[in-house]
Amino acid sequence: MAARQMGSTNVRLERMCVLVASWIGVSSSLSTNAAAARVPANRGKDDGQPPYGAYPHRSRKLDARDLATVPMVRRATAAGRKQTTMSTRLPVLLLATLALGACTDHTPMDAHAAEASAAATKAPAFAPPPESAIPEGPYGDMVRLGREIFMHTRKAAPAYVGNGLACVNCHLDAGRLADSAPLWAAYGMYPQYRKKNHHVNSYGERLQGCFMYSMNGKAPPLGDKVILALETYSSWMAQGAPHGVKLEGAGYPKVSSPAKKPDYARGQAVFARDCALCHGADGQGQKVAGDYVFPPLWGPDSFNWGAGMHELDKASAFIKANMPLSRGGSLSDQDAWDVAIFMDAHERPQDPRYKGDVAATRKAFHDTPMSLYGQRVNGHLLGSEPAH
Asked: How far, in Å, CA of 291 to CA of 190, rounded?
């Protein structure tokens, strides 16, 4: 029934559009040549010819005789015999303007559907529960252990960490901060296929990859308490979030391509201005009582060549959204790209998938313009002398 009503409405609209367009075309002649517009009052009523619109595919071109069958046009015609050109044209043009507003391919129902579609495709917002809501008992204890591992990875999981980093260095605010690859947004997206290892990964496998690459360590077994605790912490944080739906604030927001090609020298200047205060002029971070309070960005205690942060698009996205600390979004897109290339153009630990040859390793795992591995920067072949 609804479909028939819509079809009928559309037909009426099409006929109105044709008629209104014709009104506009002849209104000038009605006003400037009243004699040409003077037609019998009973035209279309008694001469056996139906009013225009009865046959939507009528081949004869509309003329003033047809328009005379429309009451408003008849009144406009009569007025044309007595009034000036402007006063005659205004009512017709006003009506035409209003009517043509409806003569489009998009009805109000179409607009409503478009708005609904846009709302449906927008990533839903989500807020994780406060840490004060972690429950008591064995489950809560596992959540708290997961948080402790996340915050102090080298101390809490020393067997699996090979550098000075912790999970919180790339996932700020204990994995809670939106646009900083928060755990609550990642958890519900697994299992998922990953091009990095060419198979469907569980969430536990994704965590294993973080230990191998970002922590420059080794992957805990999937049944290990370290993995279970991190999974439990993530699951607790994501409670109430829709599964399999990308949430607002997930991952790192993409940064637009820079106006200029990313440049090492410009990036060095951005680093000195905005990054060195925390990460040190040499990029090696800062320690307090033997523990890093600001992480190293390259060198032996940083992430290795297999970590996602070594790729320019990922690094610039993280930097733009989150750096300098507490001032995320303050850098321009160009600054974010420039400082990313400066950071990633330094040596770091070798990719654990290294095939004994830099060129072969690049071809197998780094064949993208976003990776500097196996590329020469300032005369140095990156990956050829990895940091130890």
From this structure: 32
Place of tokens 């750096």: 323
Tell me what pLDDT residue 334 has.
98
Predicted model pTM: 0.70
Identify the CA nearest to 215 among candidates 174, 158, 285, 281: 158
% the chain with pLDDT above 90:
67
Contacts of 47 (CB under 8 A, 6+ apart): 40
Q: Rounded to whole angstroms, what are the CA distances from 63 to 14, 19, 24, 28, 164?
A: 18, 11, 12, 13, 85
Render pLDDT for 226-274 as a digit per residue (tens, 0 to 9). 999 999 999 999 999 999 999 999 999 999 999 999 999 999 999 999 9
The domains found in the chain, sorted by start residue, are 2-119 (no CATH), 133-237 (1.10.760.10), 264-381 (1.10.760.10)
Q: Is 16 exposed, middle or buried (0-12, 13-18, 19+ CB in 10 A)?
A: middle
Could you tell me the CA-to-CA distances from 347 to 147, 238, 280, 304 in Å, in that order? 31, 36, 16, 9
CB atoms within 10 A of CB 261: 10
CA distance 52 to 295: 79
- Radius of gyration (Cα) for the chain, nearest Å? 35
Distance CA 147, CA 167 (A): 10
